[in-house]
Design goal:
The complex is a heterodimer of chains A (about 140) and B (about 120). With about 140 residues, chain A is an alpha+beta fold. Chain A contains two helices and four strands; from the N terminus they run αββββα. In chain A, the strands form two sheets. A two-stranded antiparallel sheet of chain A has the order 1-2. Chain A starts with 7 loop residues before the first helix and ends with a helix. Chain B has about 120 residues and is mainly alpha-helical. Chain B is elongated and about 65 Å long. Chain B starts with a helix and ends with a helix. The chains are: A alpha+beta (about 140), B mainly alpha (about 120). At the A-B interface, helix 1 and helix 2 of A face helix 3 and helix 4 of B.
C-alpha cells in the first residue's frame, strides 16, 4: 500500500486510544452518582492504561512503528464516599449511602488532557497532509 | 517510504493478459524477434506500474466511501478514521493526477519535437 501520509498509522492509533479515554472519562462523569454498578457495588472510577502495539509480533509491517493502544480499562480502587442521606432508598441502617468516589474536577482535568492530546494528534494529521500536498506542488513550475 | 518503492517490482505474471497480448503481437513481427525474447519492454513496466497505482488509489477511495457509509448508517466507526481515510484518498488521488499531468506534458513535449 502506498504510504501517502507520514506516520498516519501511529497517529490514527493514538486518536483511537484518546477517543477511548474520552469515552471512559464521560462514563466516569455520567456515573458519578451511580450506586449500583454491574457488580451491585457503587460505581468505581475507570482508568485507561495505554501501551504500545508490537506490530511485528502481529505480522504487521517492518517499519518499526510503535503505535499506542488501550491495553486495558481498570477500576480505581479508592473506597466509596459515605454520605448521610436517610431518605435515599439505597441508605443502610445508619442512613449512610455509598456513592462513587468521583471527583468531577479531576475528571474535567483528565478531559482537558485527553482532548488536548487528541487535538495534538489531529494537528499531526493536518501537518502530514499539508506536507504531502506541498511535496506534490514541488513538480509544478 | 517513497511511493514508488512501495510498488512491488514488475513481474510478467502479474498482468497475464497484457503479457500474452504483447508477446503474441510481437511474435508476428519477424524482424524484432531477437530483441523481445524474454525481457519485458519499458512500456509494459510503466503501464503495469501505472495500473497498479490506479487500482491502489481506487482501493483507497472505496475504503473511504465504505467508512463514510458505515459512519452515516450508525455503525461503530470513529469519525476521525473516516476523515483520515478521506484525506488519504484525496492526497493519493492528487498524486495520481500529478503523475498523469506529468505524463501528458512529456507526451506533448515529444509531439512538439521537430523532425
Amino acid at each position: 500500500m502506498i504510504q501517502i501520509l507520514t506516520g498516519i498509522q501511529n497517529t490514527s492509533a493514538a486518536l483511537d486510544a484518546e477517543h477511548t479515554r474520552l469515552d471512559v472519562i464521560s462514563q466516569n462523569i455520567a456515573n458519578a452518582h451511580t450506586t449500583h454498578d454491574v457488580d451491585g457495588q457503587p460505581y468505581q472510577r475507570r482508568v485507561v492504561v495505554f501501551d504500545t502495539v508490537m506490530k511485528n509480533a502481529m505480522g504487521g509491517d517492518e517499519s518499526g512503528n510503535l503505535p499506542t493502544q488501550v491495553a486495558r480499562i481498570e477500576k480505581d480502587n479508592r473506597p466509596p464516599l459515605q454520605v448521610y442521606d436517610p431518605g435515599n432508598p439505597e441508605a443502610d441502617a445508619r442512613g449512610m449511602v455509598a456513592l462513587p468516589n468521583i471527583n468531577i474536577h479531576e475528571e474535567m482535568a483528565d478531559m482537558i488532557s485527553a482532548s488536548r492530546t487528541f487535538e495534538a494528534n489531529l494537528a499531526v494529521v493536518k501537518n502530514a497532509r499539508s506536507m504531502a500536498m506541498q511535496t506534490l506542488q514541488m513538480g509544478k513550475p | 517510504m517513497s511511493p514508488l518503492s512501495a510498488i512491488p517490482a514488475y513481474s510478467p505474471a502479474s498482468l497475464p493478459q497484457v503479457n500474452a497480448l504483447t508477446s503474441s503481437d510481437l511474435s508476428q513481427l519477424p524482424a524484432s524477434a531477437p530483441v523481445t525474447s524474454a525481457t519485458p519492454i519499458g512500456g509494459d513496466v510503466f503501464s503495469s506500474m501505472l495500473g497498479q497505482m490506479v487500482s491502489e488509489v481506487n482501493a483507497k477511495q472505496q475504503i473511504s466511501g465504505q467508512m463514510v457509509n458505515a459512519l452515516q448508517s450508525g455503525q461503530n466507526v470513529p469519525l476521525h478514521q473516516a476523515v483520515i481515510s478521506m484525506q488519504e484518498a484525496s492526497v493519493s488521488f492528487q498524486l495520481l493526477v500529478e503523475v498523469r499531468n506529468k505524463l501528458l506534458e512529456s507526451y506533448q513535449e515529444i509531439m512538439r519535437m521537430q523532425i
